[in-house]
Amino acid sequence: MNPKKDSAKAEKEVATPEISEAELLKTKKEEAKIKKVAEKEEKKAAKIEKKSAPQKAAKIKKVQKRNPLKIHSKKWRAAKEKIDSDKLYSLAEAVKLAKETSTTKFDASLEIHTRLGINPKKSDQIVRASVSLPHGTGKKLRVVAFVVEEKAAAAKKAGAVEAGEESLIEKIGKGWLDFDVAVATPEMMKKLGKIAKTLGQKGLMPNPKAGTVTPDFENAIAEIQKGKVEFRGDSFGILHNLVGKVSFDDAKLVENIEQYLRAVLDAKPKTVKANYLRGIALASSMGPGVRVDANEFLKNL
Questions:
Q1: Which whole-number Å values give the CA distances from 263 to 29, 131, 168, in the listed order?
Q2: pLDDT tens digits, 131-177
Q3: CA distances in angstroms from 192 to 4, 53, 221, listed in the order given
Q4: How does pLDDT run across 202-217, given as a tens digit for each residue?
C-alpha cells in the first residue's frame, strides 16, 4: 500500500462528492427545457422571415417600377423641364438657372457637388482642405472651441457658442452635438481621444488640413464665421458644399464658386495624374441639378 496515493484519493473524494440521481435528473430536465425554448424561438423566427419575404420582394419590385420623377412635386418637375439634362452649362449660365429653378419659399442655399477622379480608399488620394469664400455662404455657423479654460472667454468673444476643455468634452460625451464646426488648439488634441469617435462619425473632428487645429483659434473662428468652408471627399470621391444663397447676386455666386474650385484644384493629390475634375453640378436646396462644363472653367483659369 502507498500511503501518499491513499491520502490523495481520499482528498479527491472529499473535493468532488457524488451527484445524487435526483439532482442529475433535475439538471437533465432543465437542459431539455432550454433546448425546447430555443427550438421554439428558431421556428418562430423562421416563420416570420418566411411570411415577410414575399412582402419585401413585392415592395422592392414596386420601387423598381416607380417613375423617379413622380417622387418629386409638380413644382420640382416644372423646374426640371427648364434644364437640358444632356447639356453642360457655363458657370454663369448654371448659376442663373439654379436660381431660377429654386422651388422653396425661403431663401435657399446654393449647393455645389464636385466629382473628383480620385480613389477615396487610398490614403494618398484623400482630399480635405478649406477655403474662405469672398462673399461667405450666407449661413451663420455654430462653432465650438477646445481650448484651456483660461482662454474660453476669448474664444466665446471671437464667436464660439461653447468653449473650454474638460467641461466641453464631458458635455459632448453625454451626447450634445448642437454645433457645425469644432476648432482646437494643438495641445488640446490629445484630450479629444475620449470623444474622437463621436466627433469623427459626424465629421466634426478638428483637423490641421482644414485649418481647425491652430494656436490662433480666435482668427480661425472669425474666418469660419465670415465664410470659410471645409471640403472633403466622401466615400465616392464627391465633394458637397454650400457656396452662397439664392438671394446673392449672380456675380458674387460666380466669384465664390471660382474661389472654391481653385482651392479644390490646389488640393489635388500628387498621385492623381489626370482627369481630376470630372464633374460639377449646381443646385438650390431641394431644387434640380444643373451640370457645369468643367473644361470651360479650366480653360478660363
A1: 73, 6, 32
A2: 999 999 998 889 999 999 999 999 999 999 999 999 999 999 999 99
A3: 63, 45, 19
A4: 889 999 988 899 999 9
291, part of any domain: yes
* CATH number of the domain within which 216 lies: 3.40.50.790
Secondary structure (3-state) at 279: strand
67, 68, 72, 73 alpha-carbon torsion, rounded to 10°? -30
- Count of domains observed in the chain: 3
- Would 211 be classed as within a structural domain? yes
Using alpha carbons, select from 246, 233, 215 the residue that is nearest to residue 272: 233
What is the rounded radius of gyration, in angstroms, for the C-alpha atoms of the chain? 31
Together in a domain, 274 and 145 = no
The neighbour count for residue 70, using CB atoms within 10 Å, is 8
Of 6-10, 18-22, 30-34, 65-69, give the range with the top mean pLDDT: 30-34
Cα 112 to Cα 239: distance, rounded to the nearest angstrom: 8
Q: Which tens digit of pLDDT belongs to each residue from 272-289?
A: 988 899 999 999 998 999
278: number of Cβ within 10 Å: 13
Distance of CA 37 to the CA centre of its chain: 42
**Which residue range forms the structural domain that includes residue 35?**
22-66
* CA dist., res. 35 & res. 300, Å (int): 75
Q: Give the helix/strand (H/E) hosting 36.
A: helix 21-65
Which residue type is seen at 65? K
Q: Which three cell numbers stand for residue 147?
A: 481650448
Phi/psi of residue 205, each to 5°? -70, 125
Inter-residue contact 217 to 182 (CB < 8 Å): no
